[in-house]
Each structure stands twice: as structure tokens, then as C-alpha cells.
Amino acid sequence: MNNFPEKPKEKRGIYMDHAATTYIEPDIKKAMDLYFSDLFANPAGLYGLAQEINGVLNDSRRSIAKILGALSDNIIFTGSGTSSDNLAIFGTAYQHQEIGKHIITTKIEHKAVLEPCRRLEAQGFEITYLDVNEYGQIDIKKLKQAIRPDTILVSIMYANNEIGTVEPIAEIGKEILKIRKENNSNFPYFHTDACQATGSLDLNVEKLHVDLMTINGSKMYGPKGIGVLYKRRGLVIQPMVLGGGQEMGLNSGTENIPNIVGIAKALELAQANKTVENKRLIELRDYFWQEVKNKISNVRLNGSELGDESIRLPNNLNISILGIEGESALLYLDSYGIACSTGSACNSKSLEASHVHVACGLKHEEAHGSLRFTLGHRNTKEDIDYVMKYLPGIVEKLREISPIKI
Amino acid sequence: MTDQEATIRGNDGTNWFYSEEVKDHFFNPRNFLHHDEKFESNAMGKVGSPACGDEMIIWLKINKDEDKIIDCRWQTFGCGSAIASTSVLSEMVKENGGMKIDTALSLKPQEITDRLGGLPIRKIHCSVLGDKALQEALNDWFRKTGQYDRIITAGKKVIDKVLNITDRDIEEAILEGARTLEDVQDKLKVGIGDPEAIPQIEDLIKFYTEKYYG
Ligand code: FES
User: Fold this and answer.
1) What is the CATH number of the domain that holds B41?
2) Nearest C-alpha of chain B: how many angstroms from A23?
3) Residue B25 and residue B125 in one domain
4) Residue B1 within a domain
5) Burial of A30 by CB count in 10 Å (0-12 exposed, 13-18 middle, 19+ buried)?
6) Could you tell me the fold of the domain covering A14-23+274-401?
7) Where are the beta strands (DSSP E) in A242-357?
8) Of the candidates B126, B146, B166, which is a domain's last residue?
9) Is B54 close to ligand 1, i.e. is its CB under 6 Å away?
10) Closest residue of B to A21, CA-based?
């Protein structure tokens, strides 16, 4: 074959990067719209409009608390998922450093967890980064062995953003609870970054046995620039932002009411529809993988097995196509109107392959050819057929240009 | 996917991360060796990038009497700028009836990036890869034709004796984006065990920064 597949006359905009961020659904946007210019007051005020807004703020808090099985004053609004992670980690570390300076996390966390941990390391804290197996799952036995009397925090993500692996949070939570009881201690605290899980997994904190949980709006069709940190009642953390004392003193700054309304609405809709939507996404995603396997040689699936949402997010397909480099594949796909992402070294600032792929033991060339498709509301079977109309030709061509023959 | 996420567009409001020329060569690569093509070359150069693990091969057809490259083909495993760099290099070598070997020897990676209308800083090393492959192919030719005095080998010199770090390692670090002694130390831990090496390392940083980004 001498040429890349012919471009379609009408380029379709196919978005398959929902793990990066999602569009805001119209219903959610509509719920937010009112609070930009009409109902805009600062909820701290004493006049009518302010009190009305204060009521809206409380309603949003209550609605989220209910879904989490928590109390209203457990819900702290922050500026993003990243802010929530930072608050959970620094907040615990600085508050309780007298008790211990040891924190446990994993090698596949989001940078929003890893970078604060690195900063703490530089400040004299000791961090244990747990290994994962080839599917990205941690070993609970190893976690238990790693917990010491001076361990103040365990932070393990609910679901991984790159490969979609779901960690056994409820089981981990139960073990940590047991260890705390045995030692008659309040530590370690257990934090989970649930940013990727908010739209599709169970968030009941009692069932998960978590003390701190990060969720955000922008992966479940809500606004960006808003996050929530759930904090179990009675647990003390130090604020990072000081000022007017909003959010129970833990995140000062005038509340971003449109976004707060947006995230509450987004969570409500996502959780209400998750059973139906998960099933639809799993079917689509599994069909996608079948098609890839049938039409492209030398491919591998990264992350846990498909099919079961308790071990893998329903919308995540992460594959490695051997013999091609991810960034060039991405650019080609983009020219056909398809958006996805890659863990290739060539596409990172540091020129290193994705730390998640490395932790899962992927070979260099496997990480190089990795592509992540994350599906969402607007994707249909037709979208997958469209992608599969062009992807095999692009792969064939890139393999032809490459000196590495597989 | 944070860093690994699609950074194909600039974050500074410019539309494309790559120039029109890069795009053109990337989407319409010239002179690559098709898999069923018989190309009679008399020299071949192959390089790999230690930075990101990519690979490039260049085949040359050289006219001995004229001391000139008259045709070439290539294959590249790598990112958009690596593919575009080899494609544009092959065009430069072939145009106007071919390129004198002396001209090819003095070709600088910067001329490749200039022809491409520039590359993002962290992609400069991809164009350097093309230049190195060409150099390797010419060395191959010199070896085959007994012109040993024309062979250019980038000799490695140990700079930091404690950690056994060479000038090549420092060159790579610069290509990967290091600019200061701190950056280089961060990447290589160079000069930490061997403080005497520091002045020499600083000289090398200046030299390579000048060479690739000056
Ligand atoms: S070839 Fe890897 S970044 Fe260009």
C-alpha cells in the first residue's frame, strides 16, 4: 500500500479522550447558568439574595453528601481534583508530622498525588511507592506489610486514568481499619483519588471505608475548575489556603457557586444513570477491542481484563500497537478527526514513557505504541466503525515507514 | 494522562504544535523506502535515539567520481518531527541533482530545523537524529571505499570519572532539554562525585547549547 487511507469528505469530530476531560452536558450547563449573572451573591452576606445563594450552596453540599453516604459538613469544595489531592496529602502530612512522617502510595498515581509526595520527600518525609502487577493492580499483602507505626497516610487511586484499572478500595479500606483497631490508633488515614471513578463506580464512603476521597467535575460532564474533598468527620487536616475560612476553614475563598451547582448536578446524573451507561460503554468498548484485534496484527491490551467494571473502568480501552509510535499515530488520527491519547515517550515533556506503563512492566516498544481511547456519552458504534475504517491503514503505513519490522 | 496526554497542539494559543512544513512532510513523507521497493544503495547509516528509543535508517546512492550523493531513501520509527526531519533531509540531499559529500558532512541539524520552519525545543533531538544517520551512512561509504581519513566518529570522552559519564551523555541531556549545570546534574548526577569535572561540564553545556539552540 502506498498511501494513507483517503480522507473522508466530511471529517467527523470523534472525541475519544473522555478521561482527559468531558464536555458539559446541556442539563448541567442549564443548572449552572442561573448563577453567573442573576443569582450571583456571596453566600456569606446577610441580605436575601446572599441567603438564597447560601441555601443553594447547602443544597449542593447535601446532594453530594447523600450520594457519598456522608454528612454535609464532610464535603469540602475545592478548585479541582488536583487541589483536593493536594489538600488531602499536605493537609494530613503537615497536621500529623509529629506522629509520623511515613506515607504509602502507589507507582501509578496521578501526578496530583505523586508530585505532592515528592515535595514531602524533599522535606524529610518518607514515601513508599507500592508496585503494581502487569494489570496495574496493587497487592494488598504488600500494602499491609508496608504499614508502620509512623505511617500517617495511605493514598491509593480508585481507578487509573491511563489504563482504567480499578483498585480494590473497599477491601483495602477494611484492612486499614483492622490495622488501626489492632494498634488502637487513628492512623494511617486512607485517601483515595476517585477522579476517574466518579461517573461510573460506587462512591459510598461507608462501603469503601475511606477517610478522604477526591472527586472532580470535569470527567463526568460537569464543569472544570471544581473538585470535592470528602473528609470523614472528626479527622483533622491542615488547610493550605488561608483567608475567610470558607469550607469549614479548609479552603478559603468565595465559593464558586455555578461550578458547585454544576458538580452536584453532574454527580447526581452520573450516579443515577451509571448502571445503564456502564453497560452501554462496556459493550461498545468490548466491540472496539474485538475490531482492533481482528483488523490489526500485533496488538496488546494494557490494563485489566475487559468486561468487569469492578476491575476496569467501562469506558477505557488502552492498547499497544507494536511497531508504531504513539505520537505520530495520534497526529494521523487527528487529521481524520479522531481524538485520543498516548503514553509514548515521544509525547511526554521528559521523553520518558508513561510512568503507569513502566510500572506495569511494559516493554519500551509497547509503551511507545500505546494508544488510549476513553469513550463517553456521545460515542456510538458508528464512531468505532469510523475509527476502524482508518486506524488499520494508518498503522500499516506507519509500519511501512518504520525500520523496526515486527 | 497529564504529560503524556495529547500535547499535539501548543498550549500558548497557537494552533498547531508543528509548523506547516513539518505537517506537510509528516503527512506526505518523501523518499521513504517502500517495503516492496528495490533500492540499490551503496551506503547505509542507522542510528537510535537514547532519549526516547526511536530509530532511523538512511540509504545512500553515491557517485564515486563526483564524490556526490545522488539518491537516498530512509525509514524512521518515531514521532512526527522525526519523520518530518528525515523526509526533509532526504529532499535536501537530492535536490539540484544531489549533494556533494563535503556539503553533506558540513550539514548542521539546524539547517534541517530551519527548513522545517522550526521545531519545538523538546523535538530538536529528533532532527539531530537525522543528521547523525546521514553521518553514519557517509562513514559506511568511507569505510567501504577505503577513505578512512574521512571517517568522523564522535569519540566519547569520560568527563565524570566517578560516575563514568561521557561528553555524549551530556550532549544527550542538552538535547533532552537541560540548559544549566543544575539541569544536567539533575538528569545525570554528573560532577557530584567528581567536583573537579564541573568546569569541563560547564564548557560542554555551553558548547552543545550553542550548537543546537544558538
Ligand atoms: S522521535 Fe521520539 S520525540 Fe521525536
Assistant:
1) 3.90.1010.10
2) 17
3) yes
4) no
5) exposed
6) Aspartate Aminotransferase, domain 1 (3.90.1150)
7) 299-302, 316-321, 338-339
8) B146
9) yes
10) B1
- In this structure, the answer to whether residues B49 and B131 fall within a common structural domain is yes
- Catalytic-role residue among A117, A195, A346, A360: A346
Active site residue A346: yes
How many other β-carbons are positioned within 10 Å of the β-carbon of residue A202? 16
Q: Which domain holds residue B70?
A: 6-146
A 116-175 → B contacts, CB under 8 A: 161-162
Count up the domains in chain B and report the number. 2
Q: Which atom of ligand 1 is nearest to the CA of B122?
A: 3
Residues 6+ apart with CB under 8 A from A283: none
Domain match, B61 and B162 both: no
The DSSP bridge pattern shows strands A227-231 and A212-216 to be antiparallel
Residue A325 contacts B where some CB pair is shorter than 8 Å: yes
Domain end position, chosen among B146, B170, B192: B146
Sketch the domain layout of chain A as residue ranges. 14-23+274-401, 26-269
Return the residue matching grid coordinates 551503496.
B42
Contacts of B107 (CB under 8 A, 6+ apart): B92, B131, B134
State if residue B126 touches ligand 1 by the CB under 6 angstroms criterion: yes
Domain shared by B133 and B157, yes or no:
no
Same domain for B121 and B20: yes
C-alpha distances in Å from residue B102, one per residue of A97, A178, B67, B99, B121: 66, 75, 8, 8, 28
Cβ contacts of B133 on chain A, cutoff 8 Å:
none
Query: Is A335 part of the contact surface with chain B (CB cutoff 8 Å)?
Result: yes
Residues of A within 8 A of B51 (CB-CB) are: 345, 351
In ligand 1, which atom is closest to the CA atom of B125?
A: 4
Q: Identify whether the C-beta of residue A89 lies closer than 8 Å to the C-beta of residue A114.
A: no
Question: How close does chain A come to B1, measured CA to CA in Å?
Answer: 6
Fold of A26-269: Aspartate Aminotransferase; domain 2 (3.40.640)
In this complex, is the C-beta atom of A406 within 8 Å of any C-beta atom belonging to chain B?
A: no
**Cβ-nearest to B53 among A323, A347, A364:** A364
**Ordered per-residue pLDDT tens for chain A, 406 residues:** 456 777 776 667 899 999 999 999 999 999 999 999 999 999 999 999 999 999 999 999 999 999 999 999 999 999 999 999 999 999 999 999 999 999 999 999 999 999 999 999 999 999 999 999 999 999 999 999 999 999 999 999 999 999 999 999 999 999 999 999 999 999 999 999 999 999 999 999 999 999 999 999 999 999 999 999 999 999 999 999 999 999 999 999 999 999 999 999 999 999 999 999 999 999 999 999 999 999 999 999 999 999 888 899 999 999 999 999 999 999 999 999 999 999 998 887 777 889 999 999 998 889 999 999 999 999 999 999 999 999 999 999 999 999 887 7
Taking CA atoms, B55 is separated from A400, B126, B133, B135, in Å, by: 13, 10, 9, 15
CATH of the domain at B160: 1.10.10.1100
> Residue B81: CB within 6 Å of ligand 1?
yes
